[in-house]
Design a protein that fits this description.
Blueprint lengths: L17 E11 L2 E14 L3 E6 L2 E6 L3 E6 L8 H11 L5 E5 L2 E5 L10 E2 L8 H14 L6 E5 L5 H7 L3 E12 L11 E4 L4 H10 L5 H7 L5 E7 L5 E10 L2 E9 L8 H15 L4 E7 L3 H10 L2 E10 L7
Parallel strand pairs: 8-9, 14-15
Antiparallel strand pairs: 1-2, 1-5, 2-3, 3-4, 6-7, 9-16, 10-15, 10-16, 11-12, 12-13, 13-14
């Protein structure tokens, strides 16, 4: 098929969905002439499939089909889907592929967000085949497959992953707030850097088990970003955070404080300094992601005015697998 689509046989799970089917309709000068049929797939048998086109039902012999593709639903995205795509844009992976609407992300294993398929939209395949394709993509890169599933989306995907015995890790809350509801603060002890320094990277790396090259690619991959550095009275860096502005959203990530300086309000101060910067940059809303079990962080952000918009989970097989 033209346009880089995925070619495959259409099967019963595709019935009821829009498809495009390329088939041979004749010969000209000894060469096959092909034509596309676009419509809703209404039937699949061992020898034929039926497509309901604008001109009526069209029975097509499978022997004449040279390529076929399910057309992703052209529906409006939900608020959850839109926010997940904004968050993904703020955490760009080292390598990115597409499976229909799904994003396939690989970054050498650094962070779940950088190394999981984001199951938003239509993968253009039946659910089981989509999971097989994800598994194969990560196997080619020597990585265990992982799929990030926003909830309550994934009604079809979750049962398939359950059937395969994939486990659930890292339930994470996505919290949001209007910037006008947050007390933006310009803090003289918080430096907002346009480029991260080695000290800043070291601060993040100390809490993330060190920073491989992939980490630097992710952290510096958004043009409109600030790297917040909390400085003690003697000028030592004691806290870090990162803010990005994407599509009118401030994304707040890698908030962390040196253990010796915790419970001194640094996370709050860095967050609000980034809010002040983002408001000046034209952002209207903010989001952040916090693990469901991190009660202190959840309490902090709720006191500031953040509320949970949705939750996502990461699913992966219990052991490395091949399709």
């Amino acid at each position: 098929m033209h346009g880089g689509g995925l070619n495959r046989p259409l099967t019963s799970p595709d019935v009821g969905h829009r498809v495009v089917v390329r088939r041979i309709v004749g010969l000209q000068a000894g060469r096959p002439v092909q034509s596309d049929a676009i419509g809703v797939l209404t039937r699949v048998t061992e020898t034929h499939l039926t497509v309901r086109t604008a001109d009526g039902d069209l029975d097509i012999a499978l022997a004449a089909v040279t390529a076929a593709k399910r057309i992703p639903d052209q529906r409006a995205r939900s608020a959850t889907e839109r926010l997940e795509l904004v968050a993904a844009a703020g955490w760009p992976p080292v390598e990115k592929g597409l499976l229909g609407d799904w994003q396939l992300r690989a970054s050498g294993g650094w962070t779940g967000r950088g190394n999981s398929a984001l199951a938003v939209g239509d993968p253009g395949l039946p659910t089981a085949a989509a999971v097989d394709a994800v598994t194969a993509w990560y196997a080619e890169r020597g990585q265990r497959p992982m799929i990030a599933v926003p909830l309550p989306l994934g009604r079809r995907l979750q049962p398939e992953l359950d059937r395969r015995g994939w486990v659930t890790i890292t339930p994470t809350l996505v919290q949001t707030a209007l910037l006008t509801d947050l007390p933006a603060t310009r803090d003289p002890d918080v430096a907002l850097l346009t480029e991260p320094t080695e000290a800043w990277f070291a601060g993040v790396g100390g809490r993330k088990g060190g920073l491989p090259p992939a980490a630097r690619t992710i952290l510096t991959g958004v043009p409109d970003a600030r790297y917040a550095a909390g400085l003690s009275p003697d000028g030592a860096l004691v806290a870090t955070a990162r803010g990005t502005v994407t599509d009118g959203w401030l994304g707040i990530t890698v908030v962390g404080v040196d253990p010796a300086h915790r419970r001194q309000g640094w996370a709050r101060r860095l967050t609000l300094a980034l809010v002040a910067w983002a408001a000046d940059a034209g952002a209207e809303r903010a989001f952040l992601q916090v693990e469901e079990t991190n009660t202190p962080a959840r309490d902090l952000y709720e006191r500031l005015g953040f509320r949970t918009a949705h939750k996502y989970v990461v699913r992966l097989p219990q052991r490395p697998c091949l399709p």
